[in-house]
């Protein structure tokens, strides 16, 4: 039987950060749903999509850190695939959230300015949403292609 590794200070910190990310993201998802119910479709959709992605990442990190923190392995190939699936879902949600911000900015620049006037102009929101849509959307496509190729290879017996 292998001796259990010592819990390190850094490991506890990473676990604490994963839990905090999960909790904060869940609160923001709830706020986004509240905005949707309240009739603020643009900001509600952006908030819900973006922080749902953060919630997925937080849960994935929490699971990985909890397993490692208890002295176990990260779960091998099955956990790696599950983690890749979660990151693919998070990239999709981030891309959709950025696209929702793009549409919201184009549809009602005054509303965007009202919500972000203290810090950003509608032009800056437009640029950020374009960049997020391209990068996260592109990241989702790359991760999806990679997952499909890996699945095809494992079905074909090459793995």
Main β-sheet, in a few words? none
Helix and strand element order: HHHHH
Oligomeric state, counting identical vs distinct chains: single chain
Average pLDDT score: 82
Radius of gyration: 19 Å
Report the uncertain regions: none
Please give the count of helices. Answer: 5
CA-CA gap between termini: 30 Å
SS elements, strand count: 0
Shape: globular
Overall number of domains: 1
In percent terms, what proportion of residues is strand?
Answer: under 5%
Transmembrane segments: 20-37, 43-63, 83-106, 126-148
Keywords: Membrane, Transmembrane, Transmembrane helix
Map the helices and strands.
Blueprint: H1 9-38, H2 41-69, H3 76-107, H4 109-116, H5 122-155
Helix pairs in contact: 1-2, 2-3, 3-4, 3-5
Descriptive notes:
This protein is mainly α and 159 residues long. The chain has one domain (9-148). The chain contains five helices and no strands. The protein has helices spanning 9-38, 41-69, 76-107, 109-116, 122-155. The longest helix has 34 residues, at 122-155. It is globular, with a radius of gyration of 19 Å. Keywords: Membrane, Transmembrane, Transmembrane helix. The chain crosses the membrane at residues 20-37, 43-63, 83-106, 126-148.
